[in-house]
Amino acid sequence: MIYSLTLNPSIDYIMKLDEFKDGATNRSYEDKKFPGGKGIMVAKLLKNLGEDPINLGFIGGFTGSYIVDSLDKLGIKEEFTKIDGDSRINVKLKYDEETEINAGGPEINEDEINSFLEKISELNSTDTLILSGSIPKSLGLYFYKKILDKKNLEFTIDIGGKELLDYLSYKPLLVKPNIDELEAIFETKIDDRNILTYAKKLYELGAQNVIISLGKDGSIFVSDDISLKAKPIEGKLINSVGAGDSMVGGFIYGIKNGLSKEKAYKLAVACGTATAFSEDIASKDYIYEILEKVEVNEYGN
């Protein structure tokens, strides 16, 4: 079973404006609400591909009820731990730029934490747990370690910043920083001359598979003796929210369904690209349409 963890789920409130003026009243011409949080995005992608993932995390208040109801309408399972606080609302402004205002999240008490960790202890050692996204401040910076120390599980982790290094000894199935996050992790400037070196360093430190997303320049993949680069695919960027999460979901789907690592990477690229070109997480049909356009080549060998 695949479990997707969102410690800090949200309602993503997307507002489209002709223009944005700082310090003035701005009016949107269109707005939409989606259940948000990186783990939920991964779960939506997996569901679209035909998997049946289960969402874990903390949920509460009227916002939490909206998130749960929205997932139920999509046929996505959840076993969230209920909390007293309200789940957050994140505002995404779209005009000639994209601006995000993300809330910090609710306070979570000790009883709620213990209830959640008990649920984690019930997972089977053959399950896959997808860890991604921000951690509410009340849980502490290294709460993911409490989860991994609680149960020996196959897992992926998608977090930005230097703290990713602290999880590589647990041998995650996949890590997927973007180039800016890779710079933050190693505290150095990354470019074409050294990106493969630092991607391989993540692998050498324990990550079983590494994807580095390069935005409009594509992505690279490192694993075992494989180093690949995917060419970018032409198209109109509609929604960058969830593109990276879709890459994670696509790769895990591929591996869990017997694809080679190269084919799983190609599917990950198709999933991320298709979502970037869609209003929400990409549909299965569109993903496989994009997959026909994915081209990967050996990189740096």
UniProtKB/TrEMBL annotation:
Pathway: Carbohydrate metabolism; D-tagatose 6-phosphate degradation; D-glyceraldehyde 3-phosphate and glycerone phosphate from D-tagatose 6-phosphate: step 1/2. One of its GO terms (molecular function) is 1-phosphofructokinase activity. It is an enzyme of class 2 (transferase). Keywords: ATP-binding, Kinase, Lactose metabolism, Nucleotide-binding, Transferase. CDD domains: FruK_PfkB_like. It holds the Pfam family PfkB. It catalyses: beta-D-fructose 1-phosphate + ATP = beta-D-fructose 1,6-bisphosphate + ADP + H(+); D-tagatofuranose 6-phosphate + ATP = D-tagatofuranose 1,6-bisphosphate + ADP + H(+). It comes from the Bacteria. Residues 6-277 form the Carbohydrate kinase PfkB domain. Its EC number is 2.7.1.144. InterPro entries: 1-PFruKinase, Carboh/pur_kinase_PfkB_CS, PfkB_dom, Ribokinase-like, Tagatose/fructose_Pkinase. Catalyzes the ATP-dependent phosphorylation of fructose-l-phosphate to fructose-l,6-bisphosphate. Belongs to the carbohydrate kinase PfkB family. LacC subfamily. This is Tagatose-6-phosphate kinase. It comes from Anaerococcus cruorum. The lineage of its organism: Bacteria, Bacillati, Bacillota, Tissierellia, Tissierellales. The gene is pfkB.
